[in-house]
């Protein structure tokens, strides 16, 4: 055999050997892949209310594997929000979110619900977004996924190794929704299932106006008839906006009192922001509104005594020169009511209020002077001898928009001025993690407060 023939023969034998070795390696790899379990993403409950916690776990990983847990939701306005955490599987190949620390991402540390409260609009989204659910009869679909390695971006371009959709609801099964137009009102009534009668809550949002219903739906899901009332930015028959007067709120309260499924002597008022001014004013001075208790979130008692809403707005406008802006040109309004006046005619006479009050305060509120107002209210009630009725929950690092728990923290957002219809960006304040802790803690304490004062000693 020639030299070249010997070389060809040797190469042929070598190739046959390598082919056999590669085939054997491939077969071994396939056997390994078949014997290794696929990662399993375990989320419970898959369907629950928005104020309930999720238990998120990943099983079937190799020990010490770096993974990213990612949560994504698509809002009714077409925007995407996301939150994500970086984890390393334990010795059993498991990640347990309620026990294991996130090493990075949109939150860090052992944060059982960090995937949700740390959510922000995805990169490239419109500016000034705020998450608010409009259709409370559809769920929030949260797409939870697991990705290999620790990622901070590009989730859409990568394929997750496991995914699950968790549904979160504002309305429990059987909740009835009723539009209310009687007595000139624009409101929505949410009624729990069953014959009742139930305690009730008059639900007042703030200066942004509109008819905001998701908190009322959640309250109904927790056993209360809830009336969401629109009272700012009302428009008459010719399209001109107008301010409602005190009779409007008394009419709304009367609707609850007269409803056959409401216990008329067990009605609370829950006010947020400007809604606090209405709540305290009505509780102190109205001969019609006699709440069993009130909850005041991020508000103040500073307002012209016995004045209308128009008078309150006029008082605020007097101090418009105190408007400040941060480095991003976002509006800070907290100084418009400062300093706290000594003149009693400019403040609700807190000594007149005879029902329990729960004050919820974010100490980094950049929209209202909630901390200063709470301190002054406390002093007024101590002097009047009714401070035993006051409970104050004050949260360091929390901002103005203290919402039901696990909803994304909104530090600043677009805001439509009611009179001019101009859009501005308002700074609400708060740092994401402490604000989110405040939302969770204050909501559960609000429910406990309402149960104590509306359900105690109640027989059906």
Model description:
InterPro entries: AB_hydrolase_fold, Acyl-CoA_thioEstase_long-chain, BAAT_C, Thio_Ohase/aa_AcTrfase, Thio_Ohase/BAAT_N. This is Acyl-CoA thioesterase 19. One of its GO terms (molecular function) is fatty acyl-CoA hydrolase activity. Belongs to the C/M/P thioester hydrolase family. This protein is of the alpha/beta class and 460 residues long. The chain contains 8 helices and 23 strands. The strands form 6 sheets. Strands 10-11-13-12-16-17-20-21 form an 8-stranded mixed β-sheet, sandwiched between helices. β16 (262-272), α5 (274-285) and β17 form a beta-alpha-beta unit. The longest helix is centred in the N-terminal third of the chain and has 33 residues, at 3-35. It is globular.
Question: How are the SSEs placed, and which strands pair?
Answer:
Layout: H1 3-35, E1 40-44, E2 47-49, E3 55-59, E4 66-74, E5 80-88, E6 95-96, H2 114-117, E7 120-121, E8 140-148, E9 162-169, E10 176-180, E11 187-191, E12 198-204, H3 214-221, E13 225-229, E14 234-235, E15 241-242, H4 246-258, E16 262-272, H5 274-285, E17 293-297, H6 309-318, E18 324-325, E19 331-332, E20 357-362, H7 370-384, E21 390-395, E22 412-416, E23 423-427, H8 432-455
Total helix count? Answer: 8
Architecture (CATH level 2) name of the largest domain: 3-Layer(aba) Sandwich
Number of domains: 2
Helix fraction, binned, reads 25-40%
Cross-sheet strand order for the largest sheet: 10-11-13-12-16-17-20-21
Q: What integer value in Å does the Rg equal?
A: 28 Å
Average per-residue pLDDT, rounded, comes to 89
Distance between termini?
107 Å
Q: Which class do the helix and strand fractions yield?
A: alpha/beta
Q: Which fold name is given in CATH as the topology of the largest domain?
A: Rossmann fold
Parts with pLDDT < 50 across at least 5 consecutive residues: 1-35
Strand fraction: 25-35%
Oligomer: single chain
Overall shape: globular
- Please report the first level of CATH classification, the CATH class of the largest domain: Alpha Beta
What's the CATH H-level superfamily name of the largest domain? Alpha/Beta hydrolase fold, catalytic domain
Annotation, overall tally of beta strands:
23
Largest sheet: 8 strands, mixed
Family: Belongs to the C/M/P thioester hydrolase family.
InterPro entries: AB_hydrolase_fold (IPR029058), Acyl-CoA_thioEstase_long-chain (IPR016662), BAAT_C (IPR014940), Thio_Ohase/aa_AcTrfase (IPR006862), Thio_Ohase/BAAT_N (IPR042490)
Pfam families: BAAT_C, Bile_Hydr_Trans
Domain BAAT/Acyl-CoA thioester hydrolase C-terminal: 245-455
């Amino acid at each position: 055999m020639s030299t070249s023939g010997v070389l060809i023969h040797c190469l042929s034998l070598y190739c046959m050997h390598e082919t056999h070795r590669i085939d054997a390696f491939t077969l071994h790899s396939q056997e390994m892949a078949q014997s290794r379990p696929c990662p399993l993403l375990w989320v419970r409950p898959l369907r629950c209310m928005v104020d309930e916690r999720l238990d998120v776990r990943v099983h079937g990983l190799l020990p010490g594997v770096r993974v990213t847990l990612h949560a994504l939701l698509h809002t009714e306005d077409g925007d995407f929000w996301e939150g994500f955490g970086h984890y390393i599987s334990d010795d059993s190949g498991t990640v347990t979110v309620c026990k294991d620390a996130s090493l990075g991402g949109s939150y860090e540390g052992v944060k059982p619900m960090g995937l949700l409260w740390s959510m922000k609009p995805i990169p490239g989204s419109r500016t000034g977004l705020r998450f608010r659910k409009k259709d409370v009869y559809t769920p929030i679909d949260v797409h939870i996924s697991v990705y290999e390695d620790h990622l901070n971006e590009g989730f859409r371009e990568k394929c997750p190794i496991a995914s699950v959709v968790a549904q979160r609801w504002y309305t429990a099964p059987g909740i009835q929704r009723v539009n209310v137009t009687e007595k000139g009102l624009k409101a929505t009534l949410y009624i729990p299932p069953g014959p009742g009668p139930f305690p009730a809550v008059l639900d007042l949002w703030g200066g942004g106006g509109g008819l905001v219903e998701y908190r009322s739906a959640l309250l109904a899901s927790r056993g209360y008839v809830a009336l969401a009332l629109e009272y700012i930015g009302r428009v008459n028959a010719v399209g001109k906006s107008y301010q409602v007067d005190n009779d409007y709120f008394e009419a709304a309260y009367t609707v609850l009192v007269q409803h056959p499924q409401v216990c008329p002597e067990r009605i609370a008022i829950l006010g947020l922001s400007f809604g606090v001014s209405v709540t305290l004013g009505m509780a102190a001075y109205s001969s019609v509104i006699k709440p069993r208790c009130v909850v005041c979130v991020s508000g103040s008692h500073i307002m012209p005594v016995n004045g209308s809403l128009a008078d309150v707005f006029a008082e605020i406008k007097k101090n418009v020169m105190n408007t400040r802006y941060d480095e991003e040109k976002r509006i800070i309004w907290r100084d418009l009511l400062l300093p706290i006046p000594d003149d009693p005619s400019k403040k609700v006479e807190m000594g007149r209020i005879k029902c329990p009050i729960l004050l919820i305060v974010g100490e980094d509120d950049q929209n209202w002077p909630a901390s200063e107002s709470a301190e002054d209210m406390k002093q007024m009630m101590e002097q009047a001898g009714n401070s035993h009725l006051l409970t104050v929950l004050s949260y360091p690092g929390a901002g103005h928009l203290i919402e039901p728990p696990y909803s994304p923290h909104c530090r600043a957002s677009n805001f439509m001025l009611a009179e001019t219809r101009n859009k501005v960006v308002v700074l609400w304040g708060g740092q994401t993690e402490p604000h989110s802790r405040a939302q969770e803690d204050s909501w559960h304490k609000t429910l406990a407060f309402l149960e104590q004062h509306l359900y105690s000693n109640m027989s059906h």
